[in-house]
Amino acid sequence: MKKQKDTKAALIPQEYVESKILLIRGKKVMLDKDLAGLYSVETRALNQAVKRNNERFPEDFMFQLTKTEANLLVSQNVIPSKRSLGGSLPYVFTEHGTLMVANIIKSTTAVKVSIVIVRAFVKLREMMLSHKDLQKKIEAMERRHDKHDQHFQVVFKAIKEMLNPPVEKKGKIGFRSNKAKQFTQH
């Protein structure tokens, strides 16, 4: 006889969960509001349960965002507005923290959804490792063929640019004519 899957966990695509994983302070984390939504509880209830079990959540499992970090998430449209935070700074949970939340919520939905979340974290970790492995292999090939053929250099440069896209520089918006420059020089 087959086990019946929890309908909520079965309906959550792993890609959706992956899209909720953010990189903050060099750690892959999920916002408390996103985690609460996945576990089918209110954010307030999730945070209360965490506070009641504070000893289970060291800083490498969970931390609270600073005002600057929260403002950055709002500016990047990760959070719709500061009002959506409910007047307090959000907490974020690492992979281990999301598992601990599932343990303190103790619902079948939380257990099943935590499996989907862990798989998403693992998939992202594997993708990052394969990216590093690919980059190392390309660099090794580049060293081997460095002296033999300059044509390879063009190919290696193009591949490196694809692996490490340039960071966009945001300039000032507007137009400044040469006449305006002349007036400001006097």
List the helices and strands and how they pair.
Elements: H1 7-11, H2 14-19, E1 21-24, E2 27-31, H3 32-38, H4 43-52, E3 62-64, H5 67-75, E4 91-93, H6 95-105, H7 108-145, H8 150-163, H9 178-185
Antiparallel strand pairs: 1-2, 2-4, 3-4
Helix pairs in contact: 3-4, 6-7, 7-8
Termini separation (Å)?
87 Å
Low-confidence stretches: 1-6
Record the strand order, biggest sheet.
1-2-4-3
Number of helices: 9
Order of helices and strands: HHEEHHEHEHHHH
Identify the quaternary structure here.
single chain
Shape: elongated
Q: What's the alpha carbon Rg, rounded to whole Å?
A: 23 Å
- Let me know the largest β-sheet: 4 strands, antiparallel
The average pLDDT value, as a whole number, equals 75
Beta fraction of the residues? Answer: 5-15%
How many strand units?
4
Helix content: 55-70%
Structural class: alpha+beta
Explain what this protein looks like in three dimensions.
- The chain has 186 residues and is α+β, with helices and mostly antiparallel strands.
- Helix content is 58%, strand content 8%.
- It is built from nine helices and four strands, in the order H-H-E-E-H-H-E-H-E-H-H-H-H.
- The protein has helices spanning 7-11, 14-19, 32-38, 43-52, 67-75, 95-105, 108-145, 150-163, 178-185; strands spanning 21-24, 27-31, 62-64, 91-93.
- It has a four-stranded antiparallel beta sheet with strand order 1-2-4-3.
